[in-house]
Amino acid sequence: MLRQIRISMLIFLLLLAACGGSDEDDGAANAEGAPFRVAIVMPSSTTDIAWSQSMYDSLTTVQSEMGGEDALKIAFSEGMFRVTDASAAIRDYAAEGYDLVIAHGAQYGNSVFEVASDFTETSFAWGTSSDTGADRGIENVFAYGAVANEGGYVNGVVAAMLSTNDVIGVIGPVAGDAKLYIDGFVRGVTDVKPDAQVNVSYTGSFSDTTLAAEAAHVHIQAGADVLTGSAQQVVGAIGVANENGVAWLGTQSDQISLGPNVVVTNQIYNWANVISDMIAKIETGELGGTAYKLTFENDGLRLEFNENIEIADEVKEAARAAIEDIKSGVVDPVLLEEDDE
Amino acid sequence: MLTGRRRIEDQFVYGIARPTGGHRAVNFRLNAPYVQMYGIVKRFPGVLACDHVDFDVRRGELHALLGENGAGKSTLMRILYGLYQPEEGRILRDGAEVTIHSPTDAIRQGIGMIHQHFMLVDTLTVTENVALGLKSSREPLLDLDRVEAGIRELSEAYGLQIDPRAPVWTLSVGERQRVEIMKALYRGAAMLILDEPTAVLTPQEVEELFVTLGYMKENGYSLVLISHKLQEILSISDRITVLRSGRLVGTVPTKDMTRQELARMMVGRDVMLERDRDDEIDVGEVRLRLEDVKAVDVTGQPALRGVSLSVQAGEILGVAGISGNGQRELAEVIAGLRPMTGGSVEMDGTPITDWSTARRTEAGLAYIPEERMHDGIVRDFAVSENLVLQEHTSDKFSHGIFLAFDYIARYSRQLVQDFYIKTPDIRTMTRNLSGGNIQRLILARELSRRPKVLVAAQPTRGIDIGAIEYIYQQLLEQRDTGMATLLISEDLDELLALCDRIAVIYEGQIMDVLERDKTSAEELGLLMAGVHPERQ
Amino acid sequence: MFDELFTISTLVGILHSCVRLATPYLFASLGETFGQRSGVLNLGVDGIMLMGAFFAFYVVFEGHNLWVGLLAAIAVGILMGLLKAFVSVTMQSLQGISGIGLYLFGLGLSSLLFKTLIGSVEGVSGFRQLAIPFLSDIPGIGHILFNHNALVYLAYLMVPVSWFVINRTTLGLKIRAVGHNPEAADTLGVSVNGVRYTTMMIGGALAAVAGASLSIGLQNVFQENMTNGLGFIAVALVYFGSWRTVGVLGGSLLFSLVNALQLWVQALAIPVPSEIAVMMPYIMTIVVLAFTARQIQKPAALARSYERGE
Question: Which CATH superfamily hosts domain B282-364+455-536?
Answer without folding.
Answer: P-loop containing nucleotide triphosphate hydrolases (3.40.50.300)
